Amino acid sequence: MPRAAVPRNIIIVGAGIGGLAAALALQTDGHNVTMLDSCFEFAEAGAGIRVPPNSARLLLRWGVDMAKMKKSVSNAYHFVRWADGSTIVRIPFENIVENHGAPYYLIHRADLHSGLLEAVKRAGVNIVTGAQVVDYDFETPSAKTSTGRVYTADLIVASDGIKSIARPLLTGQPDVPRDTGDVAYRILIPGAELLKDADLAPLITSPATTSWCGPDAHLVGYPIRDGELYNIVVCATSRNETTDEVWVVKGSNDELCQRFASWEPRVQKLCKLTRDFMKWRLCDLPVLTRWVHASGKVCLLGDSCHPMLPYLAQGAAQAVEDAAVLRQVLASTQSLSSALKQYESIRMPRASLVQAKTREHQYILHIDDGEEQKVRDVLMKRNEEQNPVFWGWDKRKNWLFSHDAEVLGHEGANWRTSGREARL
Asked: Could you tell me the pTM of the whole model?
């Protein structure tokens, strides 16, 4: 039997991770979902992605076959100094399931997308590819594609990313994503190459997230696909590689090696092993005035309303939380307009806070050597409110990782009190 208070016809625009999560959550709850995406075929793309417990629990609960995916599970978060590789702090994750109710997965983005897509198809969602939405009627509501076809529904969920065309139409305000001044190098190295080197092998054999913190840059590395690949994201001050028109450019191994020639030996070795990679402009948005159109029939979800920088690894996770809350409010409220207002009031404060803290970490992790850096390193070791890493203090870590977004009773609802533990 459907849980939905009123089963509805729903259109979701955009088949990224957030859109697929919403489609799965809503279809399995008794709604009739159609997905529209501009691509003609879903091909393997992207690099690694971290799936923290606050989103892993939801994906497991909704039937995504995580066991089928090749993946690693992070057993620690290791912050190290850029110059000599010495430890700033190592935060153990061995008891992540006991403490937070779900694993902390390290996955190839393409594998996560494929697993979600498989679950969405199994649930019966109608997926329309080659359907680029170019206009909306928010009152009907309807979405018009580049071929002229018009799709109507009871509810439209715009999950069309940071370059969303729905967002300025919905808010009534023109917007331009903010260039943060950083670019992200997204790199994959065969795990076998690391295993040949005694210095690099532990990065594969002891799965953890390693973050090298240095002036104007930091590198985050972790194994994916059971160690078949080592994923690296380099977030560094832009050298004008991208433009307002072109956000993604090809990287150069020579430039990479030169840029990090003074960093610790492991970083230099990883740079030399790097093959082709792309560099991405990192952008976000100011907090929006609203996520829901005045008609009460259209809402935003994921990067279309709260695009996040990668510094807290919460971008996709927060989109999955959006999907969970949308599912619950539609199940508990007969009025669509009231449900969407509730969705906005619940999700906007939490996602906006994470978004703001993510931007703060751009500065925290890139501090140049000196007194400020020494104070930061000392505070990072302390499990207290003054720790500059958002989840470096247990209270904040529990608020983030242990949150069950399907519990609507109160902010920070914890998986331990929800009675809805994920199937592991």
From this structure: 0.94
